[in-house]
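Appendix B, Record 12. Input sequence as logged:
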Amino acid sequence: MKPSFLIIGGVKCASSSLYRYLNEHPQVLPCKNKEPRYFNNKNPIRLLAGYRNYINLFPSLKQKEVVADWLEIGKDTKMEASTFSKKIEDNRKYITGEATATTFVEANPRIVKFLFPKIKVILSLRNPTERYVSHFLMFKRFEKEGRMGHHYGTIEEFIKKEIESYIKGDRTKILHQGVYMDYLPKWKDKLGNQLKIIHINELQGDRAYQSLNDITSFLDLEEFDYTTALSKKHNVNPVRESFLEAEAMLNEFYQSFNEKLLAQYQIVV
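Logged structural output:
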């Protein structure tokens, strides 16, 4: 099978939860690797060379069962390996897809459209200040685990460095991913009505059930009872402390970008 849909992010915007919810639908089969990062390759030649390996991550209808390898945040906040399996039934229509959270900021939508002309793409957004803090805390968790390349000071110090880098036109680690207007226009231009944008709040509380079936309809699938799926929570971090100074800095930085997002696309984050 080839992917019928992509969840392209953003990072810390519930893309993992959304992917798991959708895979509870009886017509959706999982990719072996939830986040293959295939489209993040900037080199078109290497990307095309890896096409067959990418396609092989998706299930074959000749299989009796599909098993996917996923990661979950455990009770001690460390990432733990988990698996998800689903049996394939005869005479049932299936689709498959993947969810790489960095695709939104890393990939070229022109290539996505070229390789999969009919692909449906789902983008989940979040208030960029909240997204930044969540992303930073994830990196601090990596630092605590002793992962290479993760050394950070306070969040306020890190934000100041990131803002300085962004203004100079240099690459940032976290800040740029919340500047949605730097990326959304090219996705809208290439995908048009094949792109569905949701807000993370739509996957919470009373709105979640209807939001998931709106996405189900977007994917041309039958309506499904997601009640059981929504009872499960995925990659939930512990309640975090408040970072008032950091949040004020981020709110000021993101304000003009958020206003453009509202003016051009009527999207409130």
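The chain has a mean pLDDT of 92.
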